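Example record

One chain of 481 residues, shown exactly as stored in the release files.
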Amino acid sequence: MSSRMGDLLKEKLDQLQCHFTWSPQKETIDLDDMVYRLQDAIIFADKYQAASYNQLAFVNCLQGNSEEAIQNLKEAEKILRENHKDAFERNSIITYGNYAWVHYHMGQLDKAQSYLDKLEMICKPLTDGPRYTAMIPEVYGEKGWSLLSSAAQYYEEAMKCFEKALEEDPNNTEWIMGKATVLSRLEAFSGTPESRERNQSVKYLRRVLELDPDDSMAMVLLALKLKGFRKSEEANKLVEQALQKCSKNPYVLRYSARFYRKEGAVEKAINLFKQALELTPHSAYTHHQIGICYNIKLNNLGNINPRSPATQQQTELISLCIYHFGKASECRPKTAIKPMLDLAKIYIINAEYSKAEEIYNNLMKLEDIRPENEQQICLGAGSFEFYQKGSESSAISLFLKGVKIEYDSGERKQCKKKLEKWADKKLRYAPHDSRALGVRGLMYKMDGNKSKAIEYFEKALKIDHENEEYLSALSELRLSD
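Predicted structure tokens for this chain:
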């Protein structure tokens, strides 16, 4: 085929709904980790095997393993034919779209076109829209799961997909479970609308169990939510029931262990997490959770005195935290932000400041991450600059960066609190410090105290006449009358 025909084919491929046209790309996901997670899902999450093979084909193709990608798609197709005999074509839209893209990347343009032809025949009776795809619940649902498993910045888009799928198929437990899962994750982020009404996921998890009383994942996720609402008796029963049903399922083991950790049964949690780790040895999530357990045990021993050597027990627990937080960070260098922050804190406790600094420097380079993650990094790095390095100027810059991200998270509030404390202290002995005056002005502006904000920005500009940030803030405040 000529390059012109290749370009025309590419235009058609871009119209498809499949992994190659959805948001996650090579730069935003940890490919090796994704391979391990999808391989685990194929073994342990029977319901989603075909979807996992589809996503694995995409990741393999991104890594240059096109032949392996074709084999993944053949497995997906086989499972779909077995599980959806009467509705195979509806369920094959994404698989065929992925086939077309993989063949295109392999330079097999005729084969790519043949899958486009198949898609056109499948989609024609299903839609009045695009020729090569149909926005039906099966497509929305699989897209939702794909986005949900990719990275946290795609959670809101995943939610919209599950909602679209449920509009036409409201009793589909896969889509209800998808919405429940993404809701529970968004509820855990301070600053999201979902975090202000944290019981929405409970409703959907209960609905899953109404339709499928044996869904052990819904049981443990519901137990975790109920624990937060102090419904411990029901929560404990759900976890016990889930473990009886699926004692060899790593996902059930992980969430059960997390439940027991929150209950204060740290040793029981570690035991369950280790069982999960034996089944899924590359799991960043499990390594991080084990590290958190050891960190709790370390904190329970009290603060380490920097002037005297740590006890043997403290030293052992520090080593275990470093190992597990380190493994989680290695697995996901782009997306495991919390394990990396936790690892930096342990290095600080252990007075390994150069290692902590390296982590913060790497985290500051990350792009396309959730705003609360960016604020967590600013808070952690700023605190390190302030307390360990004694670099007041760098710390204030980082805290300011955190508060200027317009996302109302707990970390933003902590950055603001640190800035207020610093500015007030500074102005007590240096009342003409322009930076402290400007910070105070910004804090008043954030609080909605317009007159005080104007007063402090004016004071700052008397000293730092040409400061564009203060001039802009003052102009904005005066125009807002």
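Notes: The two ends are 65 Å apart (CA to CA).
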